[in-house]
Amino acid sequence: MNLFLAVILASLIGVYLLHLTARRLNAAALSPDLPPEFADMTDAKKYARSQEYARANMRFQNVSETVSLLLVLGFILLGGFNALDLAVRSLGMGPLATGLAFCGALALFSSITDLPLDIYHTFVLEKRFGFNTTTAATFVADRIKGLVLGAVLGGVLLTAILWFLRVAGQQAWLWCWGFAVAFSLLLTYIGPQWLLPIFNRFTPLESGELRTAIEQYAHGQNFALSGIFVMDGSKRSTKANAFFTGFGRTRRIALFDTLMKRHDTDEIVGVLAHEVGHAKLGHIKKRLLASILQTGLLFYFMSLFLDNHALFDAFGMQHVSHHAGLVFLALLYTPVSLCLSLAANAMSRKHEFQADAFAAQTTGDPHALARALKRLSVDSLSNLTPHPLTVWLGHGHPPVLQRIRRLESMGAADSPD
């Protein structure tokens, strides 16, 4: 068997089995006993409901990843890539247009095959547990907008990469890296004002106790904001969230309307203080630097194998091309991507603890953030006892129980004797 094909197949199947094993261990780790830290927030009946939700999601993930793996393996082994390449070449377009058509067809095929599972997850699984508020019209509109936006933005990025690969010679990977980084930074800058409103409505937070508390906290931390907005998250789900977008002058806070309905002012300020902590402690810059370096590694890896004929032989290709090579290298990159994601998740979990400590210290109220985390977990039926392998593989946040215990220990330490 072709060495490249063996590595790719082993990687795809190995990663699939690893995640399958993690979910089996995760299911076994579900404890029927309600953690005492949550006794003031929920009861045994709702806690059992959260475990039922966890099991349902794990079963869904098993099916979803199995279908995805079988489709990819089938497409590889049955010569799907070569057939698609020959089909787009028969249209008689230039190299760049042919590359865009090839990658666009793959993206469209992936979207179509994912659609039944997306529909089931949204309108059956999430509805069954009381989370879904998405209408059929919103669901369809989201998919259309996503396809159009992906085609435009992805088309610009892919066109530039394919062009650099044609004209820049051995230094092409450096040009691709630089353009990809600049493009990503541009999206981060324009996203809050131009891209996010395509999917959601953002309205300025009205004057009142909450806005005053947020502005006072931000001012006290010398943390500049361009605005505080409420996002209509309830049009898709009852789950709550809050996030920062942009950087510099475009940095703004977005609060889900569902968050404001379920949390008091101190809890919301605690959540936002945690996010401010990420910025003040340099986490955002570190993550950005790590992302830039990972992108550079990806393109350097690309430069090593892109013109390797054995790689194309692994997929039964009649023609060597940059557009197909990019797809094949993405598959070959699977084990490297897994290792990098493990490191990124480990760094992220460390940062989450640090941001929690920052919020506790600067607000002077560790219990407020702890209450917010409890309420968010209860309302979203979160798994409170994930298996360590599951955390290690895919969690950018530490288990919520660990975070709450640390916060409450800080509060106990600050309490007068």
Automatic annotation (TrEMBL):
Spans through the membrane: 67-84, 147-166, 172-191, 288-306, 326-344
Cofactors named for this entry: Zn(2+)
Membrane topology per record: Multi-pass membrane protein
GO biological process: CAAX-box protein processing
Residues noted as binding Zn(2+) in the record, renumbered to the chain: 274, 278, 352
Keyword terms: Endoplasmic reticulum, Hydrolase, Membrane, Metal-binding, Metalloprotease, Protease, Transmembrane, Transmembrane helix, Zinc
UniProt remark on cofactor binding: Binds 1 zinc ion per subunit.
Pfam families: Peptidase_M48, Peptidase_M48_N
Keyword Iron: no
Compartments (UniProt record): Endoplasmic reticulum membrane
Keyword Glycoprotein among record annotations: no
Primary localization class, coarse: endoplasmic reticulum
Gene3D superfamilies for this protein: Metalloproteases ('zincins'), catalytic domain
Domain annotation CAAX prenyl protease 1 N-terminal: ranges: 33-201
Peptidase M48 domain: residues covered: 204-409
Protein family membership: Belongs to the peptidase M48 family.
Name by which UniProt lists this protein: M48 family metallopeptidase
Species for this entry: Pseudodesulfovibrio senegalensis
Source taxonomy: Bacteria, Pseudomonadati, Thermodesulfobacteriota, Desulfovibrionia, Desulfovibrionales
